[in-house]
Amino acid sequence: MTGAINFSAAKAATAVQRPVRMVLAAFAVGSLVALAGCATTTSDDTIRIDRAQGSEENISSLTSVINSNPSDPEAYNSRGSALGKAGRFKDAMNDFNKAIQLNPRYYQAYANRALVERSLGKQVEAVQDYNTALQINPRYDVAYIGRGDIYRLANRLDEAMADFNKAIELDTTDGRAYHRRGLIFQRKGQHAKAIEDFSSAISLSPTAPEPYNGRGISYLATNDLDNAFSDFNHAIDLDGKIAESWANQALVYEKRGNMQMAYKSFSHALQLDPRYQPARDGVERTRAGTASAG
C-alpha cells in the first residue's frame, strides 16, 4: 500500500473544499439516476476551520506554552493543530515540522501534518506522512482512516477498504472509519452493508450530520423514503448550513411528487452553496412543477 498513487481523481475531488460533500444521488423524477460516491473529501479529513479552537486567544495561550517549553514537541503539535483550525496552514506546517524535528518518532505530528498537506492538495506528501506514522505505530487508527480516504478519493477502493477495515479491526472509536467504508459499499450498490456502517458511524458520532446523509442516500436508493426523509431532516437539525442536507431532503419531496417543497429545499441549498450543482439541477427540474402548482 506504499506505492505511487495516481492522484488525478483525488486532486479533482479536493479542488472543492467542502466538509460534507460525501455522496449525493441525482434523481430524475421518479427514478434513481446515479450515486456520486466519492464527490470530495469530506472530508472531515481535511481541516475544518474552527473559530473557537483556532482563535487568537487560544493560539496566543499555546504560544506562551512554547515560550516556556521551547523543546516540547507536544506544545508545537498542539499549536499547529490550532493554527490549522484557523486556516493558517503555512504556520501549522512549521509547527508540525518543529515537533517532528524535536521528536522524529512523534507519529501524531506526522498524521497532523498529513491533514494540513491534504488541505493544501498535497496528497502524495500526506500519504508519505501517514505511512511514516504507521511505521512508528502500526496500531494508529487515525492514520489508517486518513490514508484510506486518500485512496478512496483516488479510486483505489480495495486499498481504501483495507485501511478502513484495519482501523475497525483495531476497535477504533472514530466513526469516520465506518462512514468511509459505508461510502464504498454505497458506491458498489451494497446498500444494506452501507446502511449498517452508517448506523455504526452514527452510534460513534451521533452529532455528525455526514453519516445521516449517507444512510439517507442508501435508504433513498432502496426506495425507503420515510427513513431517508427522517435521516435528512436529522442532518439538517444537526447543522442547518449544509447544502447537501437540504438538497437530499428535496430529493425525497421530489420522489413523493411534492414539487413545491422540493423546489423550496433545492433553492435553500443553492442559497447556502451557489456552486453546488445537484441543488442547481434540482431547482431547474422542479421549477416548472412549482409554476404549474401556483
From TrEMBL:
Domain of life: Bacteria
Pfam families in the cross-refs: TPR_1 (PF00515), TPR_11 (PF13414), TPR_2 (PF07719), TPR_8 (PF13181)
Span of the signal peptide: 1-36
InterPro entries found in the cross-reference section: TPR-like_helical_dom_sf, TPR_2, TPR_rpt, Ycf3
Keywords from the UniProt entry: Repeat, Signal, TPR repeat
TPR repeat windows: 73-106, 107-140, 141-174, 175-208, 209-242, 243-276
Protein name per Swiss-Prot or TrEMBL: Tetratricopeptide (TPR) repeat protein
Species whose genome carries this gene: Rhizobium aquaticum
